[in-house]
Amino acid sequence: MNQVVVAVENLSLSSCWSCHTPFDGVHLFCPACHIIQPTAKLSPFSRYGLIATYDIDLKALEKTYLKVQQILHPDKFVSRTDREKLYSSQQTMEMNMAYEILKDDVKRAEALLQEEGVNFEEKTIHDPHVLMMSMEDREALDEATETGPLEVDAKKRYKDTVVDLKKVFEEKDLEKTIQKTLELKYLGKFLNDIKDKKRKLRENVTANS
Amino acid sequence: MLLQIHEPGQAPAPHQSDPGIAIGIDLGTTNSVVSILKEGDVHVISDEAGNRLIPSVVAYANDKVHVGHQALSSEGEKISSVKRLMGRGEGDLKSIAGQLPYKLASSEGMVKLEVNGSIKSPVEISADILKEIKRLSEEALGRRVTKSVITVPAYFDDGARAATKDAAKLAGLEVLRLINEPTAAALAYGLDQGKEGTYIIYDLGGGTFDVSILKMEKGVFKVLATGGDAALGGDDFDHLIAEKMTQSVTNEEEARNVLRHARKIKEALTIENAADGFTREQFNTLIQPLVKRTIDMTHNAIDDAGVELSDIQGIVLVGGSTRVPLVKEMLKSTFGFDPLDDHDPDEVVSEGAARQAAALLGEGDHLLLDVLPLSLGVETMGGLMDRIIDRNTSIPVSKAKEFTTYQDGQTAMMFHVLQGERETVEGNRSLAKFTLKDIPSMIAGAARIKVTFSVDADGLLTVSAEEQMTGQKQDIAVKPSYGLDAEEITNMLRDSMASAREDIESRLLIEKKVEASRVAHAIDTALRQDGELLNEVELKELLDYKDFLVNLAEKSESRNEIKDALEKFEELSKAFVEKRMNKAVSSALSGKDVSEFEKKEEEELAPCLK
């Protein structure tokens, strides 16, 4: 139970800080004395025992996340030593951060591309079709008096783009993957803008009533 | 730090030794409730007279401190609603100062109150309430109580959380965990009734509104999003009634009586259709816009949680103000189901706290996963807030971001830690300021300063900054400027034991003098930066008055004289302050005009985005 998450790579030899028993690989808890161990430097995927691919099972990921929380969360270490409390907190932080990346369709893509050495700061959307679409979106949002239809449409496009992205990741076409990731990032941002607009419309109705 | 070293397999299991007991405390604005879990059932601890709600009121009479119902009937000076001041700086209170039923004492940083001739911080007053709660619990349980779980509004910022923990420490209570009030309520319902699915927790108290969207699944309670308004509650309903009452008010005492009367009417209208010339319909019309606002915020929270309305299984009601019929009606008509209200809304939060307290000591295997209620970040050049951790991120969490220098050869960087959702610094809460020194001299933009924000499971923040290029590490942990440092707490503990009386008046005078010189210095700096916004006459007037203030700060022996001068000065500088604000906002928005910042001293430069 305590070893649900064991990274497959990184088979360095280390030992338990408490009982000094040496062990292989990365463990959350010492295999001998079951004491919590300090965090190791791992990719978000390795941290959850996953192979680094874009198409992951998000339902299974959530299950693992909750299981991990149940054994690592600081609430489970209230009566333990300060050092164990510290490790529990740090381990939970790492797991939370990794989960945030893995469950997010855009961040997960960016993490994979970063491992390929892609610097996202320098990348911009080239596809004229996407650029045109974003201008039309902007106009439609500015003029909208209700956000429902826009939201439905944007959500569908988002979903479709995730499917496309899975495909280009599989085909290992780096340039296409970068472009699709940027497109998805744009759609994510647009969905957020829709949410903000929805909020504003709601508040205006209240103010005028 | 002394570490415990254990032989293999010999480490103490969490429940091996007697972990003791821990109480759950709902430290409310109006009332507090304390509970304990015994053999699976939650028991509310009542006071000597059998009251389960302990009014959060403290009365200070000469040497005696009374809390709760005893305080209400005491002759001493009464302090209520101190929770609203937790973690607040003096600046935060300018806007509401007139409405507060107590005298504020001037002080740097955290706000202080003048009570019966002595000066008390909100932390000390809260500690007095907690001491009484501890005493009542010990008497009821017949054993020492040192551990607790205390609830705070989800919307409490870092300063208010730290202040609450400090108060507990001062009262001799260890806080196993601070948990959010709506989460505690959900825990009470979820564990008691085995609820599963996604729920809205709607918490309308006396002074605050909190809403959380929570997913309960197989013993895990995960907060998906929180929202709310720290200044909206049932007290506002009282105010609306009071405004409609024809009675004219000439002094504070009368105002308080009118409010008390209004409150009685509100409570009567919960059960009856008319009271004292008010009908429930009239009352509903008055409060409808406020209730609508809470429902808007509930919709916003649902959006933030990334769930659809159809995913919601129910609404849990928390807080005394949810007794108002219109609240239930509007929730039902909006969301389509009857809200869950079979737990006493006044006790449900404390009940959840007691359950969590027991769980933390190893009884029960549920788990609470909470989120950061408000975004955290730092001020960057141009007076903007750069977010480092977004709101609704699961805690504990740690995130880092790199910044760089603004000027060639800059060797120090000022970090202003902020909490809130606004783009500009002004709209957000200032938590702390610190300076990273000894940055190697480089050209602008070359240094790499990594700033790390860590939020622990209580929702408390520590910040560190580190220069990356040279590998030279320099960590600075900051505590919120409105919290208390360890030394202050030790001093308070000592002061409270040695009943040495200070000369209050001379202390107040010194504090006023400090304030005057601070104001003079501030205006000096402001005029140097933005003096060109004024014409010659205006400029001279302000400069002259500044000299006058400096003189007062050095020589005056009258607190009132300084106070009047400060008030007059505030009036005089109003126009200038407005002009500056406009300028700051427009330059922040354009993001280009940085000339004004060049005049800043090198040591004071804020970080730049890389």
Put the structure in a nutshell.
The complex is a heterodimer of chains A (209) and B (610). Chain A is mainly alpha-helical and 209 residues long. Chain A has 7 helices and 2 strands.
Which tags fit this structure?
heterodimer, A: Helix Hairpins, Monooxygenase, 7 helices, B: 610 residues, alpha+beta, Nucleotidyltransferase, domain 5, Substrate Binding Domain Of DNAk, Chain A, domain 1, Substrate Binding Domain Of Dnak, Chain:A, Domain 2, 15 helices, 27 strands
Distance between the termini of chain B: 37 Å
The total domain count of chain B is: 3
Helix content of chain B: 25-40%
What is the helix tally of chain A?
A: 7
Q: Biggest β-sheet of chain B: count, sense, barrel?
A: 6 strands, mixed
Query: With helices defined by DSSP (H or I, 4 residues minimum), what is the helix count of chain B?
Result: 15
Shape of chain A: elongated
Structural class category of chain B: alpha+beta
Q: How many domains, in number, for the residues of chain A?
A: 2
Per CATH, which architecture of the largest domain in chain A?
Orthogonal Bundle
Give the percentage of residues in beta strands of chain A.
under 5%
The global form of chain B is globular
> What's the CATH class label of the largest domain in chain B?
Alpha Beta
Largest interface (C-beta under 8 Å): A-B, 36 and 45 residues
Radius of gyration of chain B: 26 Å
Tell me the Rg of chain A in angstroms: 22 Å
Please bin the fraction of helical residues of chain A. 55-70%
